[in-house]
Specification:
By secondary structure, the chain is α/β, with parallel strands linked by helices. The chain contains eight helices and ten strands. Helix 7 links the parallel strand 6 and strand 7. It is globular, with a radius of gyration of 17 Å.
Length: 231
């Protein structure tokens, strides 16, 4: 049995213990609106850097940090009316927006390029809501045809490489239903200008964005939450 298969079979405390054997873990309390949640996460993302992963496709473990954009996206989506509608998260990381979406009543599929992110997300959702999301390992360069389409697609801070401008736009277009809406939270990353250009090329258009300022110690960011719909 592979490491991936063995983790898939574990839940609750057993999953937490297995993850703690893979890397040092810590917990962080997060408040989103009226909700207080506790997230398990790697205690130091730098310790997860793999030279082999980087050589293969310049992959770095960005999933292991709780980014301000994820907090702002979670506060946005928790106010939406899920009512059983299907929602897809691109790059679920530690799972905070997925938790918010499930709290709001969405039927959530959380995706990431890292197996560990999927298992951390499973554990964090179960810890806080008592149930797990659907999870799927997804490479944006090899989009799975059987993933289906969703009423809502969300992503937080995924535009940190120029290549992702087109990839993220294309993935949203492939995943979004004709009457669907996407929310992308971004603090002004490298690929944002190109992403804005590519959105129209894949048939999507921007609605009016919201901008929220995030401050925590030395971290000061203006996070824009972009709303995308079909032209």
């Amino acid at each position: 049995m592979s490491v991936r298969e063995s983790l898939e079979a574990l839940h609750d405390a057993a999953l937490d213990e297995a993850l703690a054997r893979r890397f040092a873990t810590a917990t962080e309390d997060v408040t989103v609106g009226a909700h207080a949640w506790t997230l398990l996460k790697p205690s130091n993302a730098d310790h997860l850097i793999s030279e082999a992963d980087y050589v293969m496709d310049e992959r770095l473990p960005y999933w292991a940090d709780l980014w301000p954009s994820a907090r702002i996206l979670a506060s946005t989506i928790v106010r939406e009316r899920g009512a059983g509608r299907r929602l897809l998260e691109l790059g679920c990381g530690l799972g905070l927006p997925t938790i918010a979406a499930m709290q709001a009543g969405f039927d959530v599929t959380a995706t990431d390029y890292y197996d560990d992110a999927l298992h951390v997300t499973r554990g964090n959702v179960k810890r806080n809501l008592g149930r797990e999301p659907h999870v799927r390992l997804v490479n944006w360069r090899e989009w799975p045809d059987d993933l289906g389409q969703f009423d809502v697609v969300i992503a937080a801070d995924v535009l940190y490489e120029k290549e992702y401008a087109l990839l993220v736009a294309e993935c949203i277009a492939r995943a979004l239903k004709p009457d669907g809406v996407a929310f992308v939270a971004d603090p002004g990353r490298l690929a944002l200008p190109q992403f804005r250009e590519h959105v129209a090329h894949v048939g999507l258009a921007f609605g009016e964005p919201t901008v929220e300022r995030y401050e925590a110690g030395a971290i000061k960011q203006e996070i824009q939450v972009m709303r995308l719909v079909w032209l």
